[in-house]
Amino acid sequence: MTSDKNLIAAELxxxxxxxxxxxxxxxxxxxxxxxxxxxxxxxxxxxxxxSQEELWLVRDVGGREPLRPDIDHLYDAFKHARxxxxxxxxxxxxxxxxxxxxxxxxxxxxLDQVRLDERPLVNGGxxxxxxxxxxxxxxxxxxxxxxxRTGAPVLSAPPPPPGNRRIRGExxxxxxxxxxxxxxxxxxxxxxxxxxxxxxxxxxxxxxPVTNAAYAAFIDAGGYDDPRWWSPKGWAHRNAAGLTAPMxxxxxxxxxxxxxxxxxxxxxxxxxxxxxxxxxxxAYAAWAGKRLPTEAEWEKAARWDPETGRSRxxxxxxxxxxxxxxxxxxxxxxxxPVGAYPAGASPLGVHQLIGDVWEWTSSDWYGYPGFRVxxxxxxxxxxxxxxxxxxxxxxxxxxxxxxxxxxxNWDHPIRRQIFSxxxxxxxxx
Length: 429
Hints:
Elements: H1 3-24, H2 28-32, H3 42-61, H4 93-113, H5 126-148, E1 170-173, E2 176-180, E3 196-200, E4 203-206, H6 212-220, H7 232-241, E5 249-252, E6 255-260, E7 263-266, H8 278-287, H9 295-303, E8 358-364, E9 389-392, E10 409-411, E11 420-421, E12 425-426
Parallel strand pairs: 8-11
Antiparallel strand pairs: 1-4, 2-3, 4-12, 5-6, 6-7, 8-9, 9-10
């Protein structure tokens, strides 16, 4: 293998090691059980990552004979809703693990044989990078399933680094154009392309995500009971769902606590709030006299370098994330306190834009001007124009391979089982 192929193989194996950690941590009953109607059984996710790897790397890139064409329909996410998947004749855990091992052997053989410049699908290792990102995305989904699981803790990790209480307030982002999206990142997905200029008026953005303490003040001020702060759709959902606090929060002895991966602790005041829906984030912002950022505002704050005028790959520069830059990859099992990653700040001093919590933006989910489907419409295009809002930046459960300054996530505005938080912006007075 070339050095590039060695890197790709290492990323494939690193993703698989995380998948194994998440699925080996529980017994067979937990693997096949559906822990929430919002989520698939863990065993479905396990076999699904193998199915996608077989479809793209073994069959398409490698031109090899199918291993298990009989199960394609079972692991097609568009054919079966998550709530229906437990009733399917799924592979059992042992069969799923065997299938993944067989697929991986074939995929690595394909990687060894293929030329990485022979066609667009494999240029720069794109198809392999797409599969790495796909598996890591499902690993984050499985981590969210673990959060919804009841029972004794099965996952552990060291605590994140300490914060810095001096990191507070707002940062001015000057007005003017910047380059949004990318044409050069070899593993960027179709919805991140093409690069294009966007003129963004000046605005003020929170230097850090909204914290538990700030959000608790909104609750204590009656924010969940006052329709002034909620959009009509948000207020209707708040009433229908009976929302009173972020998901997994509960009051005990006059203080807020949360359940996290089987453990119960008091909320940490300086930690970014997590497990809030778009509607909750929108209401908080209105109460605070602010609003949620547009997607373009978020990306300009995260990537634009005022000294050079160029857009960086990450807030700190073009180098991949290290442990000093951001809370990523399930290295910790919670968001880090505000100010924990000074080395990851943007040139203008905005902190924790990558990692910790996915950040809701006010933007709807659409393609960029000049968008082109690649390599299949079902990844991005079929969701355009629906009831989706864009999230940015990744969470503590997002792997570095599956997030960058241009990476775009999307979900329904009612969702909060995901590791979602937010920060606010406002116009200049």
